[in-house]
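Amino Acid Chain and Its Fold in Token Form
===========================================
Scope: a single protein chain, as residues and as a discrete description of its fold.
Amino acid sequence: labelled as such and written in the usual single-letter residue code.
Position: the record begins directly beneath this header, with no further notes in between.
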Amino acid sequence: MAMDMDEDEDGTQKPRQVQDYGIEVDFEDLDDEDRENGTAETEAELDAEITKVVAEIERMTPNMKAIDKLDDVEAKLAATDKEAEKARKMSKDAREEFNKVKKKRTDRFNRAYNHIAERIDQVYKDLTKGPNAPMGGVAYLSLEDSEEPYLSGIKYHAMPPMKRFRDMEQLSGGEKTVAALALLFAIHSYQPAPFFVLDEVDAALDNTNVGKVARYIQANASDTFQFIVISLKNSFYEKSQSLVGIHRDQDLNSSKSMTLDLTQFDD
């Protein structure tokens, strides 16, 4: 085994003094043959073994910068968790608000629908009953989607008296008009306005149905619920309380109105 040697001033050699850093070399694991074997081959094997051990030690040496990186990662993780928690809370609040609005919307819809559905059959009966059909016809509503009714349609069925059930499209023009008026009056009964304007709704009606509609309006009109009807049929407007006529003044070349109070005349 080679050993570094220092020379004195007189030329004599002595072993170089190397600081041992408090390390004591333990040769107990070496047998007698290895201790006495100082060949270059043995030295090379030991150097290779030392190099291997040193490499393993270096691999095991902790990366001191990893602590700083860990702190950064933990800080980012904490910030991400905070943002995620905030997003979850916002999502929960939005979902609760949506469900609240959805419930309010459903309740309002059902409240209006139930009132109209209960009312429409009686209104239709009042508009269609007569001497030959004292009970009148039958009308009802049905929902296409009971879970979220406001997202789908509402089916309206009307069956005139003494006739079999048919789709609304197969009814005559007058029958459709009466059915439409029944629906209109039923809807209006939910949150009634003080005025109700009807513009020539009797155009497709015969005299019998005109009389029925006129009698219904007469029975439901009051000081708080007034009907304004535009009609060209005397069987309709002769049952009103007052008339307003529009005519053209030839001299002035403009329209003028005139009124007539019918309450002063006997029925």
Q: What stands out?
A: The mean pLDDT is 83. The longest helix spans residues 65-128. The CA atoms of residues 56 and 62 lie 12 Å apart. Helices lie at 32-36, 40-60, 65-128, 173-190, 207-220, 234-237.
